[in-house]
Every structure is written in C-alpha cells, then in structure tokens.
Amino acid sequence: MNARFPAAVVQSLSAQGADTPAIVAGEVMHRRTRPAANAFTYPAFCLRLPLSQLPALPARGVAWNRRGLVSFHDRDHGPRDGTPLAAWMRQLLAREHIEASGEIVLYAFPRTLGYVFNPVSFWVCHQANGNVAAVLAEVNNTFGETHHYLLAHPDGKPLRSGETLTARKVFHVSPFCAVKGHYTFRFHFGPGRWLARIDYFDGEGESVLLETHVSGQEQALTVSSARGLLWRYRWFTMAVVARIHWHALRLWIKRVPFFSKPFPPESLLTRSMSAASESSAAAELANEAASVGGPASAAGPSQGASSAPSGGSAAAELANEAASVGVHT
Predict the structure, then answer these.
(1) Is residue 3 in a domain?
(2) Is residue 173 included in any domain, yes or no?
(3) How many CB atoms within 10 Å of residue 121?
(4) With contact defined as beta carbons under 8 Å apart, do 306 and 299 qualify?
(5) Nearest 10 degrees: Cα torsion 197, 201, 207, 212
(6) Which of 11, 108, 229, 258 is the most buried (most CB within 10 A)?
(7) CB 169 within 8 A of CB 185
(8) pTM for the full model?
(9) pLDDT tens digits for range 294-325
(10) Residue 224, domain extent
(11) Which residues of the chain register pLDDT less than 50?
(12) Residue 329: inside a domain, yes or no?
C-alpha cells in the first residue's frame, strides 16, 4: 500500500477499481470575438493522472519527480513545493467543506525534454461513489503567477456533464483582457473522453469575448505511447509559449486595447458561493453584466463565484459540441 494515501482512500479506490493513467489526445481551440476577431485550433494532448496512481508512471514510460524525456513533477502543481498532491488537494477540499473521498484525477501537460507550461490544469475530484464533487481549475499566466478556481455546488450535490458553473474573473491572464467580468465552465466527464470549455464574458454587453475548449479521446499510456508523445510533441511546451506570444503580437497589430498587469488577488482561491435558487443566481449574473466591470467583492476567505442555471439543454449543447470536436458522447 502506498504510504502517501490514507488506508481508507486506498480501500475505497480499490473497491471502485482505481483508474489508470492515460493520454488524452485531441485539440485546443481559442476564439476571440471582438474588437478584432482572432482564432486558432491546434493539436494538443495532456495526461489523465489519477493521483493514487502516480507511483505507477515510471512503469508506463513517464518519469515521476525525476528527470526524463517525458516526466511529471509534483512541484509543477498545487503548492509547487513538492508536497504530495493528493494530500494537498484533500486538505484544500476539507477547508472548503467539500466531501470528495474518491479518486482525484489531474488533467495536465507533462514535462517534455524537461520543460512545461500549463495555461490551465484541471483537478477532477470524485466522491466515494464516483460522482464528481468538484473541479479545481489551476490557471497560470506567463508572469509566473497561479490562481485556483474551485467549482462546486455549495449544497454538495454532484457536478453533471454539460452543467454551467460561473466564476468571477479575478486573475490577470492576458494583457488584452481586463480583470473584470466572469468565466463560465462546462465539462464532459464521460469515460474515454474529456472536454473542458471556458468562455469569458467581460461585461461589455451580453456577448462572449473569448471561447476556449480543450478536448480529446483517451488512449492507453504505455512505454511505447510515451515514446510516441516525445516524437510527436517534443517541442510542445516551447510551441505553447511561442503561440501565446505570436497571437499576442497579432492582437497588438490589430490595435486591441492593452491592459497593464494589476497586482494578483490576495486570495489564491476563487470558489462557488451560496445561491438561494437558480433564479437568484441568474439575477446575480444579470446584475454583474449590467455593472460593466465593477470590481469583484471579496466573499469571506476566498473570492466569490456562482453556479449558473443548467439542465438538459446545457447537457445536450455540450454533447453536440463534444461530437463536433471528435469527442463522441
């Protein structure tokens, strides 16, 4: 038994049939709608990493916490000090009063040739019965800063595929977007596939400013497939950073307004806040849009966010999008 994981957690995972690490091969899409249009879609991949299975990575061709052509390091995520990631995440969930005693699955880029930059990584936190209790979106900017958006229902009910969750934007990512407005997040949690969609609304009217999705099909992670990653994606991290700066240059040439970098938020975590009903959540979003970028107020120890109304129509829309990008529901 792995000493890094509590006995009860290991027993629970064994009862479920613990997940195994996998490659998610697909694409990343980004589209800006105004004041100048800009869009791109690139082939991309990430690793699907059940945190209880990190010790198994070397047997699958990925070095763990040591040098390697393809490697994963605990210090690239969470507290970034080498702390075991599962323990750190469970402590965070406990502080936020979220029950998630099942597997925690991290979707992230590994290091290739020793380098990595993850614009966003996703921690999918399961309850003991396998339902999704929360998702932590770990956002990094090119200034070396990190912020965490914790997406969960305040009443503890599970998250569903296609459901929309909304969080205030409090963290600087791009100099061509002000720190105001809000994000909407939607996910597809089905087996064998992954889809995360993030849309950004800046409060200038009701239309979306940025649309982004990361999608892909799961493939077995083996020594052979890990070598294939190195062949196909050996310059992946450098390409990610280069493309960020290339598209920033294109926006500058198109005279898109430039915003200086503000100080990062005092809290490293932005999470959901209580809403009395779906209608009150919708009213809150409408008021936020009408405020046109007023500063977000603090909500206790962490910044405020809210879950937006969702239902069958949202799930159906996400299923259609998943099919359109090669992720079949």
Answers:
(1) no
(2) yes
(3) 22
(4) no
(5) -30
(6) 229
(7) no
(8) 0.80
(9) 333 333 334 554 444 444 444 455 555 554 44
(10) 12-324
(11) 1-18, 273-282, 284-285, 288-289, 291-302, 305-315, 323-329
(12) no
